[in-house]
Automatic annotation (TrEMBL):
It comes from Qipengyuania flava. Mg(2+) binds at E138, D164. The keyword Lyase applies. This is Citryl-CoA lyase. It holds the Pfam family HpcH_HpaI. Gene3D superfamilies: Phosphoenolpyruvate-binding domains.
């Protein structure tokens, strides 16, 4: 069984904010998002990237180490020309973590690790202490490497992207006629989940672009949590409370998990136990313990 270790900070909601807008960065920071991601990639045009780097570095420098733990930065992808400049600008300010977009496989995270380690050492930061979340399905080729991320010590989470994947495929849309993700994108979601669990890192659901429909957001967040996801990306502060609630075990779920754990503790030699008209076995015990770890960890 691959048990995902509980992260040192909560990772339910990940809210993007464009790095070229101090106002939006401040608003995101003031939200209840577990993690805020200052974006240097899609949200910033090429001509504005240098100013955005400087703005993010200045913003981070004004925060305490405790505050910075939840303030991450999405750099540009390694197949482009800006990643090194992004890291050189923001790493001295001690961001809580780095998001790597368009990861092509573990070799990209390894390359990023090497670049970050050098900058950590130069700036008096403990080497390896800045975690990474990788976006792992944004190109067609990357879909085939989602299971290769195990054993990367800096990797804390994996997430997936439907918009860039559609662009990579030349697709007209990533949705079917009912408005749900088409099969290829559901496959991307599944591969990300499987890859993250195999790597023992936190699986994070992709964004919902319709930030006004919070009812649909809640339904989707609950559905993917039931599948095994532990958190979700957000593009608007209004989405954050919905995501936080959806990915927080309810009192009823916690009570049920404790009852299952207690039942097996009282019957240590039992492989199966009758319960509420059904049968519990060891996988039920494992899932109950994992849920309690999310609450008590």
């Amino acid at each position: 069984m691959n048990a995902i270790p509980e992260p040192r900070i909560r990772m339910r909601s990940w809210l993007f904010a464009p790095g070229d807008s101090g106002k939006k960065m401040l608003k995101a920071t003031e939200s209840d998002a577990d993690i805020v991601i200052f974006d240097l990639e899609d949200a910033v045009v090429e001509s504005g990237k240098a100013d955005a780097r400087a703005a993010i570095a200045e913003f981070l420098a004004g925060k305490s180490a405790e505050e910075r733990a939840r303030l991450w930065v999405r750099v540009n992808p390694l197949d482009g020309q800006w990643t090194a400049d992004d890291l050189a600008a923001v790493m001295p300010a001690g961001p809580g973590g780095i998001m790597l977009p368009k990861s092509r496989g573990r070799h990209d995270v390894e390359q990023l690790d090497s670049m970050m380690s050098a900058l950590e050492q130069e700036n008096g930061i403990e080497p390896g202490s800045t975690p990474v979340i990788a976006l792992v399905t944004e190109t067609a080729a990357a879909m085939f490497t989602t299971g290769d991320y195990g054993g990367l010590s800096r990797l804390a989470a994996m997430t997936w992207g439907a918009e860039d994947l559609a662009d990579s495929l030349g697709a007209q849309s990533n949705k079917d006629f009912e408005g749900e993700f088409a099969f290829t994108y559901k496959l991307a979601r599944s591969l990300c989940l499987l890859g993250a669990v195999a790597a023992e890192v936190v699986p994070v659901e992709t964004i919902d672009t319709n930030f006004r429909d919070l009812v649909a957001l809640r339904k989707r967040a609950i559905e993917v949590r039931r599948q095994g996801y532990r958190g979700m990306l957000a593009i608007h502060p209004a989405q954050v409370p919905v995501i936080n609630e959806a990915f927080t075990p309810t009192e009823e779920e916690v009570a049920e998990a404790r009852e299952i754990v207690d039942l097996f503790a009282a019957n240590p030699d039992a492989g199966t136990i009758g319960w509420k008209g059904g049968m519990l076995d060891r996988p039920h015990l494992s899932r109950a313990r994992q849920l309690l770890a999310q609450v008590e960890g």
